[in-house]
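Field guide to reading this record: the first block holds the primary sequence, the second block holds the structure written as discrete tokens, and the final block holds curator observations. Each block starts with its own label. This record concerns Aldo/keto reductase, catalogued under organism Haloplanus ruber.

BLOCK 1 — SEQUENCE
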Amino acid sequence: MATSRGTWGYRDRFGDGFGRTYFRRFGPGVVSSVGLGTYLGEASEAVDDGYERALVAGLEGGCNVVDTASNYRCGRSERVVGRALERAEVDRSAVVVATKGGFLPFDGDQPDDPAAALRERFVDDGPVDPADLVAGQHCIAPDFIDAMVDRSLDRLGVETVDCYYVHNPETQLRTRSRAAVYDQLEATFERLERRVDAGEVGGYGVATWEAFRRPPDHDDHLSLPTVIERARRAAETVGRDECGFAAIQLPFNVVMADAFTTQAHDFKGERRSALAVAHALDVDVFTSASLAQGDLIDGLPAGVDAELGGDTPAQRALNFARSAPAVTCALVGTSDPDHVAENVAAGTFDPLGARAFDAVFE
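BLOCK 2 — STRUCTURE
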């Protein structure tokens, strides 16, 4: 697992090669504020090979955060991350590995009858109760998440996942009330607290797409303060003095800035944004879609672009994401080692200061 000594040693190997605050505190150590994602791409050996080379280049070049999920690319991404961890000339203790569970995963490719295959594997003879299944593919019940942790440890070839996310819990709102979703999250958090206690999970959190950046009247809204309170209750139930809830993941970029601009959460008698609540509660934020899934590589809005450091639009977009308050790391996925080098080089430029960042929205 990632350790204080391992991650600080990783930081020190790069000396002054990166800009101010490129490495940031997370858990027992530090992480790069640009991280490696593994979401996009076909479920093919060619894409596997590209990702493996890109991940190795990133790990050896200054990124010590790798993010994946049990269902990414039909389950292939976790295996590729495991191979890259073995191949890279970087100690495992220097790397924060994050993965997710919530969507029922395929095993290498998409079968001819996806629904039947998932039902046979996970429902008929597996850990999923049909009552907990939404849209035929999503479950966050404790038994399923427990099974997915085991699956991820095996696919990644590691003894510990440093951060384990419950994946897109707002999907459950299609058929359940918010109260029921909070209840199930708390039950699953109890299971994850036990995994933290056993040393198999370093910390856990929630990865969302809509939930934390939408206001309370939106169908997909979940309250971040409530979710964190349920995690604290779970820790108390298990008998742990320290809650294992460590981070959230959500989309954030210059054209999807709702996590900063939308006052979506009731917190201490006022309405606050997701990033403001995370900052107040000392919860780390990892941003997904930091390049708007590639849309920003052709350029940013002129008024914003002029304020940011970076030689390319991609670098400036990443520097916008990692300039936001509470953001620990901006994730970006690519299976091209040259693009990884470009993305990592964003960290040689300083991020915006708080006043300059706020001024972008004035």
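BLOCK 3 — OBSERVATIONS
The longest strand covers residues 245-251.
The chain has one domain: 4-337.
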